[in-house]
Amino acid sequence: MTDTRPVPPTAVRGASASGARLQGVDVARALALLGMMAAHIGGIADQLDWSDPSTWSAVAHGRPSTLFAVLAGVSIGLTSGRTSPPGPPTIGRVRARLAIRAVAVVAVGFVLIALDTPVYVILPTYGVLFLLVIPVLRVRPAWLLALAGACAVLSPIAAVAIAPAYADAGMVGVQLGLVYPVVTFLAHVLVGLAVARAGLEDRGRQVVLLASGALVAATAYIVGTVVAPLPPGAAFAFPGVPYAADNATPGQALAQLFLSPRDHSSSVVDVVGTAGVAVAVIALCILVFDGRGRVAERIAFPLAAVGSMPLTVYSGHLVVIAMLPTYPESAEAWGWFALGSVVFAMVWRRFLGRGPLERAVPALASLVPMR
């Protein structure tokens, strides 16, 4: 029999559908935001080599944006019933509200693209992903993971198939489905939704998610590194598009297509590896900061404040970049941006609560009445 329980009012307002807000999710979201800032302006290394500590900053390539997408799925799950999504007619209103949020996020993304910064803006893809998960809000976690797996397998094929359509695209065009491929990132959002539906409050499940995410990531990257080692020039390949050297054999090209460990390669290894890292990070943050008392809450507050207003912080750092006379690109520049984001978020959350864009977008969504 269909479950027709309505979503609790807190879920309608955008908070967790049951229980307290998960601080660890906000902390993980802050790590994603600060990691994307590092990729944008941090002057980080081009390619990660674990044997060379000077390249470790390259961990910010690809993984923060994936963490951001997985957290999008987690947030959708938390705000639509957690482990028990409602049935009709309430689920229809939840879907309508999510559609409005999606359109609003796409609109904000186009405004940020219009600033003409040399940063690839993820928000238009992000909004489209919101729309694509609307039909699967009540699907069980196992089937969500199966769909995510199918997207992972299709990811490199889709990336190669759409690349010719962007042959003459400029900076604006490549941000609409090429740099952040929809099929690739849909896998990440589905993983996040499955994690939320499976439940995040249980300590045992948090440990399982941490261990399984780390194991999946390690296995994927080991397989990719052994079977499809990166060819020369891979560090400078265009993001979102598979890459193989000009003199590669058909077997080597096929291995790079499906198993390349390169960040933003859209390969199966890239999708699975970065998703595993994201799940492990989220589980670790919840395990460390949630249910640990007031001291843990105070320690988490600076990052949790940033993570509680992701749309505002993400948009704000691009506005600041656009206002600067020269494009900043150094570890020092990233440090100032990170510090500014933390201070702003702490002060705003302490005295005003939710971020400005985090107020505006739900206000639009609330045009759809829940009753």
Q: What can you tell me about this protein's structure?
A:
The protein has 371 residues and is mostly helical. Helix content is 63%, strand content 0%. The protein contains 15 helices and no strands. Helix 3 crosses helix 11 and helix 4 runs antiparallel to helix 5.
- What summary fits the major beta sheet? none
Helix content: 55-70%
Order of helices and strands: HHHHHHHHHHHHHHH
Mean of all residue-level pLDDT scores: 91
**How many β strands by DSSP?**
0
Give start-end ranges of low-pLDDT stretches: 1-18
Q: Please identify the structural class as seen in this structure.
A: mainly alpha
What's the overall geometry? globular
Rg, nearest Å: 20 Å
β-sheet strand percentage = under 5%
Report, as a whole number of angstroms, the end-to-end distance: 22 Å
Count helical runs: 15
Task: Tell me the quaternary state.
Answer: single chain
